[in-house]
Specification:
The complex is a heterodimer of chains A (about 575) and B (about 160).
Chain A lengths: L1 E3 H11 L4 E4 L6 H8 L5 E4 L3 H13 L5 E5 L3 H15 L4 E7 L15 H5 L5 E4 L6 H13 L5 E7 H5 L1 E3 L19 H13 L3 E5 L1 H5 L3 H11 L3 E3 L14 E4 L6 H9 L2 E5 L5 H4 L2 H4 L5 E6 L13 E4 L2 H15 L5 H15 L15 H11 L5 E4 L3 H9 L8 E2 L10 H11 L5 E6 L9 H7 L5 E6 L4 H10 L15 H7 L3 E5 L5 H10 L5 E6 L9 E2 L8 E2 L6
Chain B lengths: L1 E9 L4 H11 L6 E6 L5 E9 L2 H13 L3 E6 L5 E12 L2 H13 L3 E5 L3 E8 L1 H10 L5 E6 L3 E4 L8
Antiparallel strand pairs in B: 1-3, 1-4, 2-3, 5-7, 5-8, 5-9, 6-7
């Protein structure tokens, strides 16, 4: 069947069973939009800014196991998408971004709305393509989906010049893709796995350190099984939350810069560390030299060899898909019959329980002023701990991570690697579209929410009943916290002046807005919001302006050098 | 430590910038980088001379392998190998220096491939040190211009970089 390039693109999306495509039209993609108009299998979600298109596709991918898809025009369409693409890249989220490009003859002529999209996005994509021949569209899109979802996932961009959309050729969607230069490993090396198990079974102070790779490879159940089989403590990175049930006794909470006392101490003083789909990020272990002071054996499972021994030297590297490797570990333990050293483990747990008694997440609640932690705790209660929760970036993000106890994977959506303010609302859009009947909450702050506030309009058009939990402290809270602690209290440009009345703003967009001023009203407002099943409700909580996130490991310090509360200062 | 990394990469537009972009983005050194198609026109072979600690070189290898279009990466300096670089040097050749320049080129097994009344172009191949020593051995004031190709290399004996 002979089709035009534009028809081929849409047919490819249908073949890939794409449910939603998030985008914004423009000159270079007019032919593509014309073809989208003529069909109803792939539904288009019109955002109000291209950055949000990519974030929404990213959010959709994070809470499903599908590839998110975005469509933008050339020039500013593509540059607006860059922040979204980089955000997805840093967290290894599978995306396919299709961008329009000026006609091939105009490339390099400084044409209207021309930028070198492939050049601009090169450092923040897993791979990208400029398709100059209509006969290469189908195979390129097939490869893009394959690359995005396989190995260590990531965004793949396909740039298509306008004239290529009008050229014609025979359409045949390739079933099989072989790329001699790309063969990601899945199964781990059996010998390495055996070596790892030997270490684990001899461990006296073991620790399982789980990361975003557990979520991405859908290995939460396997991780839980392995941890229970061994009886080892588990800690998780920000990106790994939900990979192990937070209510379980073996879970020590999140580790790192704002991690729990017990998780950070356990991590530091462990003698055998099992890192699963995590990458020893600077926000997780702080200074690698301080971390390296304690002798310990490290086992590292990761699908990306370049993540292994990058910041911290590893003793037993296992390159492979986390789910496959954990499966093999469970199989070997169950068939081998050997069990961990129970006596040593009992002593270790005693030590951990002692650390736990510090109750590092305890905060002083108040009857007069709303504490942000209290709002998150109540949100957890009201939603039964079972909502899809997105966040933006800053203090509210850390409080969400600390106080919303995630039981299941793919429920927690935030920008961990790039730390992009403005993701919260578009992530919630992606999540609500992927899970229409489920509660979706966006925990945000008055600064972050304003970075993609225009999407309230998209939410109205597509009837997305998201609940926005705005922890409004009239400050760039995390900036203010660092200025208070490390810059002599000089609050340079961190006060958010001239804020809008968010409740009225939400109403102006056709949503429901509620302002909450006192602690007594917090729970009622949340319950009221979730009762309104068909409405987006913007809850504007006026919270304590000076509350800080604790515990805290100062940047560049070691994990054991924690500030537990304001009294420690 | 100095390393010579050879790699095969799909001969696609933009492949070179993926590699050079990787080095600049991650702050790795490039001493020289050469690239040209191989006998299989779909593949290019690239030779990169870089320096770094063992950890950095390990990361460079892994990061290069991670590039989707890179087919194979070998650190040829890890074992016996041969390196060559091509130098084209244009020198002033007048008066008594003319004969001296010819003699020096002969000593270093260079060839004069262009001659005018006043200048020679000398072609010379060898490893980096040999070319460096030649450039140091002749009168610096006589050098009009130099063009060096950067290092290429292959492993000795049975060691082969091939798909």
């Amino acid at each position: 069947m002979v089709l035009t390039g534009a028809e081929i693109v849409v047919r490819c999306l249908q073949e890939e069973k794409v449910e939603y495509i998030f985008g914004y039209p423009g000159g270079a993609v007019l032919f593509l939009y014309d073809e989208l108009f003529k069909q109803d299998q792939v539904r288009h979600v019109l955002v109000r800014h291209e950055q949000a298109a990519v974030h929404a596709a990213d959010g959709y991918a994070r809470c499903t196991d599908k590839v998110g898809v975005a469509l933008v025009t050339s020039g500013p369409g593509a540059t607006n998408a860059v922040t979204g693409i980089a955000t997805a890249y840093c967290d290894s989220i599978p995306l396919v971004i299709i961008s329009g490009q000026v006609p091939t003859a105009a490339i390099g002529q400084d044409a209207f709305q021309e930028v070198d999209t492939v050049g601009i996005t090169r450092p923040c994509v897993k791979h990208n393509y400029l398709v100059k021949d209509v006969r290469e569209i189908a195979s390129t899109i097939r490869k893009a989906f394959y690359l995005a979802a396989s190995g260590r996932p990531g965004p793949v961009l396909v740039d298509i010049p306008k004239d290529v959309c009008t050229q014609k050729c025979e359409f045949d969607y390739p079933r099989e893709i072989t790329m001699r230069s790309y063969n990601p490993v899945t199964k781990g090396h059996l010998g390495q796995i055996r070596k790892a198990l030997q270490l684990l079974l001899e461990a006296e102070r073991p620790m399982i350190y789980s990361g975003g790779g557990v979520i991405l490879s859908d290995a939460a159940e396997k991780l839980t099984r392995l941890a229970r089989l061994l009886g080892f403590p588990v800690t998780s990175t920000l990106m790994g939350l939900g990979g192990y049930p937070a209510s379980d006794g073996q879970f020590l909470g999140m580790l790192g810069m704002h991690g729990t006392y017990e998780a950070n101490m356990g991590m530091h003083y462990s003698d055998v560390l099992l890192a699963v789909g995590a990458r020893f990020d600077d926000r997780v272990i702080g200074d690698p030299r301080h971390f390296g002071q304690e002798p310990r054996k490290i086992i590292h499972i990761d699908i990306d060899p370049s993540s292994i021994s990058k910041r911290v030297k590893v003793d037993v590297p296992i390159v492979g898909n986390v789910a496959d490797v954990l499966d093999e570990m469970i199989r070997q333990i169950e068939s081998g019959g050997a069990r961990p050293k129970q006596d040593a483990l009992d002593t270790w747990w005693k030590q951990i329980d002692e650390w736990r008694r510090r109750e590092c997440l305890k905060y002083k609640n108040s009857d007069e002023i709303i504490k942000p932690q209290y709002v998150v705790e109540k949100l957890w209660e009201v939603t039964g701990g079972d909502a899809f929760v997105t966040s933006d970036v800053g203090q509210h993000q850390m409080w969400a991570a600390q106080y919303y106890k995630f039981e299941k994977p793919r429920r927690w959506l935030n920008s961990g690697g790039l730390g992009t303010m403005g993701v919260g609302l578009p992530y919630a859009m992606g999540a609500q579209l992927a899970h229409p009947g489920s509660p979706v909450a966006c925990i945000t702050g008055e600064a972050s929410i304003q970075m993609c506030i225009q999407e309230l309009s998209t939410c109205k058009q597509f009837r997305l009943p998201i609940k926005i939990v705005n922890l409004n402290n009239r400050y760039l809270g995390m900036v203010r916290q660092w200025q208070e602690l490390f810059h002599g209290g000089r609050y340079s440009e961190s006060y958010m002046d001239s804020l809008p009345d968010f409740a009225k703003l939400a109403e102006a967009y056709g949503h429901v807005g509620i302002r909450v001023d006192t602690p007594a009203d917090v729970e009622g407002a949340l319950r009221e919001a979730f009762k309104q099943k068909n409405e987006l409700v913007f809850l504007d909580f006026q919270v304590d302006q000076t509350e800080n996130v604790y515990p805290m490991v100062q940047g560049g310090k070691g994990l054991t050098e924690m500030i537990l509360s304001a009294e420690d200062l | 430590m100095r390393h010579v990394i050879s790699l095969l990469i799909e001969n696609e537009s933009g492949a070179l910038s993926r590699v050079s972009g990787l080095f600049s983005a991650r702050g790795y050194n490039i001493e020289s980088l050469t690239v040209a198609p191989t006998e299989d026109a779909s593949l290019s072979r690239m030779t990169i001379v870089t320096t770094g600690s063992d950890d950095i070189i390990e990361q460079i290898n892994k990061q290069l392998n991670k590039l989707v279009e890179v087919v194979k990466v070998v650190d040829i300096s890890e074992s016996a190998h041969i390196e060559r670089e091509l130098l084209l040097i244009k020198v002033r050749a007048t008066g008594k220096d003319r004969e001296e320049m010819k003699r020096m080129a002969d000593i270093f097994r260079g060839r004069i491939i262009d001659a005018t009344d006043t200048s020679y172009v000398i072609e010379m191949t060898g490893n980096q040190q040999k070319l460096d020593s030649f450039v140091a051995a002749i009168d610096g004031g006589a050098i009009l211009e130099t063009a060096r190709s950067g290092v290429v290399g292959v492993g000795r004996g049975e060691r082969v970089l091939k798909v």
